[in-house]
Write a structure and sequence with these properties.
The protein has 197 residues and is mainly alpha-helical. The chain contains 6 helices and no strands. It has one domain. Helix 1 packs parallel to helix 4 and helix 3 packs antiparallel against helix 4.
Length: 197
């Protein structure tokens, strides 16, 4: 009499606790501009730095937007009220905050300050924030920030004077060439995308 072979009873699958995998990095790269490693800082840190730096650049762009089409020097004289020529103190030059503290008026002549000033500062700050959160503190992010800042200046100058100064075109061209050379040097495939091959 042949022995019967019985299959072992199958145990119901047990619910094993799932172990979450490592989270993907927020930034695509953690390498500095010189190739070394950056400290593992949270995105909020880089975002804050980017926005503050962008607002400062936006404050300088307001000088460019006002003086460049008028043929004035960008460095002399210092920041002043365009209506009464009152020299601005350091605390009157704080991006965005100064406009709020002064309630949109010059401290000396009490004339209204153009809303363009805080708009440009906030806009450039937000653009810097977006690029740094997208690409991290990298050469590509810096190039995109500079290019975006140039476009902002060109837009507001063109909006008021219907011209785009050659200086802005040359600067944007130089940023584009520098970025392309960096991408080619680092072997980034975006270099080929720029030229279409």
């Amino acid at each position: 009499m042949a022995a019967e072979i019985t299959e072992p009873e199958r145990q119901p699958p047990q619910n094993r606790p799932s172990v979450p995998g490592p989270k993907p990095p927020r930034f695509r790269t953690r390498t500095s501009l010189s190739g070394g490693s950056l400290p593992n800082l949270p995105p909020a840190y880089w975002g804050t730095v980017a926005f503050v730096l962008g607002a400062v650049v936006g404050s300088f762009l307001n000088v460019v937007i006002w003086r460049l089409p008028r043929g004035e020097s960008l460095s002399h004289p210092g920041s002043h009220c365009p209506r009464c020529n009152h020299p601005l103190a350091a605390w009157e030059n704080i991006p965005i905050l100064s406009f709020l503290l002064l309630r949109g008026r010059c401290r000396e002549c009490r004339q209204s300050i153009s809303l363009r000033y805080p708009v440009v500062e906030a806009l450039v700050g937000l653009l810097f924030l977006v690029f740094v959160l997208r690409f991290g503190p990298t050469v590509r992010a810096i190039a995109y920030c500079l290019f975006a800042a140039t476009l902002v200046a060109a837009f507001f100058i063109d909006l008021e004077h219907f011209i785009i100064p050659d200086e802005l075109n040359i600067f944007a061209w130089a940023v584009g060439v520098a970025l392309d050379l960096w991408l080619a040097h680092s072997g980034d495939p975006a270099h080929r995308m720029i030229w279409g091959w």
